[in-house]
Design brief:
The protein is α+β, with helices and mostly antiparallel strands. The protein has eleven helices and eight strands. The termini are far apart. The structure holds flavin-adenine dinucleotide. It holds the Pfam family Acyl-CoA_dh_1.
Length: about 375
């Protein structure tokens, strides 16, 4: 089992890139996290270091601060990071794609270089207390005001890392709620704008990743709208399609290392491992191999110019299943790690529980696959 599952070793330019990156990493290791330093701040320092070596935004055109290479190059960098157990580049890849697809030329030139450099950190303000799966039903309004302005009122929920962010990709209703999908628009909201209140929430694992965002008479300008009025739904669906397709996160090598550890354990304990546990480890190995084969195919598709779409729901389901089964099994096999002794398995196990919720729940992914990929008829709702 390779520790670089997305190594397409047959291409010389990729091999050179990997070699250069490994040499850079040898001289620029992940900085140590300060005793009281929030994880997001530590990752932000790492992001800036990677950017100083030009290892962020490899697939973004040079005119917007990237390197003008392909998504395969970006995937190779994440693969190398994952192989070293280092955190990936903060997940800006999907936001960069959305700005490339929907932003005006002026917005791309102004926002992308700062996003890639980590000069501006971003969060995503889609979900609300009454609108998660039913995102099109959201209530936050951006009403037209004189002089090309908007006044925004509403509340967002589960906004990850808003307390450490400068800008928020905000989804709000600009038109008539009777046409829920057609009346949404997207904005880039500076979080220091008067009327914005960010309140962090403490999760069960002790992290304060989530925030509530309160928006009271917040003023935005037309130039802060991304895309045309009414483009919000298409923009949101593009955002989540890239988010659900997690090729460039460096997760695969991380899973691969744990799968290998389980496999070795099963081998060493042959005959002394309960049958149930042995077959669970077998399933983890199969899940992982399926995920790798699938990710390689998806990478090739991306290279051929295919943009992310409804197939990302398949990626998200496969990733969720593999990740949740892997950490559940690992905790049964290495129960000492339940208390965080000798590894991060317990923390990763806790976070894996959220995989079937964030970026759209597993039920919603199945609905998308049924409707948009399999074209199955909608359920009969007469009962
Ligand atoms: C770790 C994490 C990070 C997140 N970060 C962000 C963020 O940065 N920005 C952001 O905007 N949001 C974020 N979210 C929110 C996330 O997108 C929502 O939690 C998710 O979309 C589900 O919405 P909900 O929580 O309102 O659940 P609900 O939509 O209320 O769903 C409750 C249950 O009902 C089921 N359900 C609902 N509708 C259907 C249906 N039509 N068919 C079948 N089942 C259905 C769901 O599957 C779920 O099991 C984050 C969530 C998590 C867990």
């Amino acid at each position: 089992m390779t520790d670089r599952p997305l190594d397409f070793g047959d291409r010389a330019d990729l091999e050179h890139l990997r070699r250069d990156f490994r040499a850079w990493l040898a001289g620029n290791p992940l900085p140590e996290r300060g005793a009281d330093e929030p994880a997001a701040v530590h990752l932000h320092r790492w992001h800036r270091m990677l950017h100083s070596g030009r290892w962020v935004g490899l697939d973004v055109p040079e005119s917007y601060g990237g390197r003008g290479l392909t998504s395969l190059h970006q995937v190779a960098v994440s693969d190398e990071l994952g192989a070293r157990g280092a955190p990936g580049v903060p997940r800006i890849g999907y936001l960069a794609h959305v700005l490339l697809e929907f932003g005006s030329e002026e917005q791309r030139r102004r926002l992308l270089p700062r996003m890639l450099a980590g000069d501006d950190t971003w969060c995503q303000g889609f979900s609300e207390p009454g609108a998660g799966s039913d995102l099109a039903g959201l209530s936050t309004r951006a009403d037209r005001a004189p002089e090309g302005r908007y006044i925004v009122n509403g509340q967002k929920l589960w906004t990850s890392y808003a307390q450490h962010s400068d800008l928020c990709l905000l989804l709000a209703r600009t038109g008539d709620a009777a046409s829920p999908h057609a009346s949404l628009s997207a904005f880039v909201l500076p979080l220091d704008r008067p009327g914005v209140t960010v309140r962090p929430l403490r999760a069960a694992n002790g992290d304060d990743e989530f925030c509530e965002l309160f928006l009271d008479d917040v003023r935005l300008t037309e130039s802060e709208r991304i895309g045309a009025e009414g483009d919000g739904w298409a923009l949101a669906m593009t955002t989540v399609a890239y988010e659900r397709n997690a090729l460039d996160t460096g997760h695969l090598p991380k899973y691969g290392r744990l799968v290998e550890r389980l496999r070795r354990h099963a081998h060493e304990r042959r005959g002394r491992l309960p049958d149930g546990l042995r077959s669970e480890i077998g399933r983890c190995v199969v899940d992982y191999q399926v995920l790798v084969a699938h990710a390689r195919r998806r990478t090739a598709e991306r290279l051929a110019g295919k943009t992310a779409g409804a197939e990302s729901s398949v990626d998200k389901l496969l990733m969720t299943r593999a990740e949740q089964r892997l950490y559940e099994t690992a905790l049964k096999v290495f129960p000492e790690e339940l208390h965080g002794e000798g590894g991060d398995v317990f923390g990763d196990y806790l976070y894996s529980r959220a995989a079937s919720v964030y970026g759209g729940t597993s039920q919603i992914q199945r609905n998308i696959i049924a409707k948009r990929l399999l074209r199955l008829p909608a359920a009969d709702r007469r009962d």
